[in-house]
Specification:
single chain; alpha+beta; Deoxyribonuclease I, Chain A; six-stranded mixed sheet; five-stranded mixed sheet; 8 helices; 23% strand
Length: 333
């Protein structure tokens, strides 16, 4: 079985309110890319992935007049994808939903949020002291993680959690001190969300559940100037440093390898520096029982993956479709 995570930049801008694809020459929300070009590129990428389940990060928006499910079903039908059924969780207000696109012949999937005293439902509130001032803070997810109960065609049950953790930009700050204070506060909230997510992971593993955590954690070594203020990154917190740890070889290499190249899953253009920056943001982490099954991870990077590089159509599609690249996990379940 192949499970993928893919952050699609401004997927929402490719659909009208009825969920129909806007296949035209108007500009997409991606720089210098038309809607038709981005849609065609995404069709090539999703077809090449041929995944049984794709966790879509920044999925099309859902609200009173728009439907994530309708948009993704339309997209799957347009490109005759096996992964054509949709499950999503709590709707958010960011125009960037989290949804699972899956093959109903290979897997069943349902949104199944759980909770405990230590880890409330992800649409709720976590009470935690963020800055050690003996004052309780209330933390909420701007993008509540998606909790899915999966059953494969072989009868394997597992829990898939899709997450998009992101530290907000310091909007409203103007002076250097204001920017610093707000940036640190936002990073602290992101780490609290990672703690919340880790508590849920520990709850599930303690109950004997097989767990996959996938998505964009938007945090890690070298990502911003404030990381040295905190003992751990979101990635390290979610992986765990006590009790059973999750495993992702790319996370391990990024965090702990002292020499050699580091893997990356995203490529951004820095306008003020006139160059591209690459970062490791997207992960598929698995519990020890799943890691013992010998899974194979792959980053579909247009330059670093030999097959992607040597297939011009796929290479160009990956660069056109999004500023992130898919990550897949192949595992016998």
């Amino acid at each position: 079985m192949r499970i993928a995570t893919y952050n699609v930049e401004w997927f929402d801008a490719l659909f009208d309110d009825s969920g129909a694809l806007l296949m035209d020459d108007a500009w997409s929300a991606r720089y210098d890319v038309t809607r038709a070009q981005q849609i065609e590129a995404l069709g090539i990428v999703f077809t090449a992935l041929d995944a049984d389940a794709v966790l879509v990060i920044e999925a099309p928006d859902s609200h009173r007049r728009r439907s994530t499910t309708s948009a993704l079903e339309t997209f799957a039908e347009a490109f005759d994808l096996r992964a054509r059924a949709v499950t999503m969780g709590f709707v958010n207000d960011t125009q960037q939903e989290i949804a699972l696109l899956y093959d109903p012949d290979r897997v069943t999937a349902r949104h199944d949020p759980v909770e405990s005293d230590a880890a409330p439902r992800f649409d709720g509130v976590l009470r935690i002291d963020l800055d050690i001032d003996a004052t309780e803070d209330k933390v909420q997810f701007s993008k509540p993680p998606l909790e899915v109960a999966l059953r494969t065609a072989q009868g394997t049950d597992l829990r898939l959690i899709g997450a998009h953790l992101k530290s907000k930009a310091p909007h409203g700050a103007s002076t250097r001190d204001q920017i610093m204070r707000l940036s640190i506060a936002n990073r602290r909230k992101q780490l609290a969300q990672a703690i919340w997510l880790r508590r849920r992971i520990e709850q599930l593993m303690a109950a004997g559940e097989a767990v996959i955590v996938a998505g964009d954690l938007n945090d890690g070594p070298g990502l911003d100037e404030y990381e040295h203020l905190f003992g751990r990154s979101s990635v390290e917190i979610v992986l765990g440093d006590g009790g059973p740890r999750l495993f992702d070889p790319h996370a391990e290499q990024s965090l702990y390898a002292k020499r050699g190249p580091k893997p990356t899953t995203a490529r951004f253009y820095l306008n003020h520096e006139k160059k591209f920056m690459q970062a490791m943001l997207d992960y598929v982490m698995v519990s020890p029982d799943l890691a013992a099954r010998g899974p194979v991870w792959r980053i579909w990077h247009p330059f670093d993956d030999p097959h992607c590089w040597s297939t011009p159509e796929l290479r160009e599609a990956l660069l056109t479709a999004s500023d992130h690249f898919p990550v897949t996990l192949d595992i016998d379940i």
